[in-house]
Amino acid sequence: MAGGGYKHGSYIAYDGKGNTPRCNLFVRMLQGMDIETDAFATSSGALSW
After folding, report:
1. How would you write the pLDDT of the chain (49 residues) with one tens digit per residue?
2. Report field, pTM of the whole predicted structure over 0.85
3. If phi over 0 gives left and psi between -120 and 50 gives alpha, with beta otherwise, what is residue 35?
4. Boundaries of every domain in the chain
5. Distance CA 4, CA 33 (A)
6. How would DSSP label each residue in 1-49?
7. What pLDDT does 42 receive?
8. What is the model's pLDDT at position 20?
9. Which contacts of 18-26 are long-range, i.e. CB under 8 A and separated by 24 or more positions?
10. How high is the pLDDT of residue 35?
11. How far apart are the first and last CA of the chain?
12. CA max distance for the chain
């Protein structure tokens, strides 16, 4: 996953009360690797920023 077109060196803070499932990040990572998926484990969708 190093390189791979992702923007490194940044920090994104999300609302802790919103309780976004970590699996949403995994969905986004899979999509970034051209794997067609809309769900992973308990995700509620792809994480967007």
Report:
1. 566 666 667 766 666 677 777 888 899 999 999 999 999 998 889 988 7
2. no
3. beta
4. 20-49
5. 8
6. --STT---S------TTT---THHHHHHHHHHTT---S--TT--S----
7. 86
8. 75
9. 20/44, 20/47
10. 94
11. 19
12. 31
Phi, psi of 29 (to 5 degrees): -65, -40
Burial (CB count within 10 angstroms: exposed 0-12, middle 13-18, buried 19+), residue 44: exposed
Whole-number Å distance between alpha carbons of 28 and 5: 13
What is the rounded distance in angstroms from the CA atom of residue 11 to the CA atom of residue 42?
Answer: 24
Both tokens of 44, joined, read: 């509620």
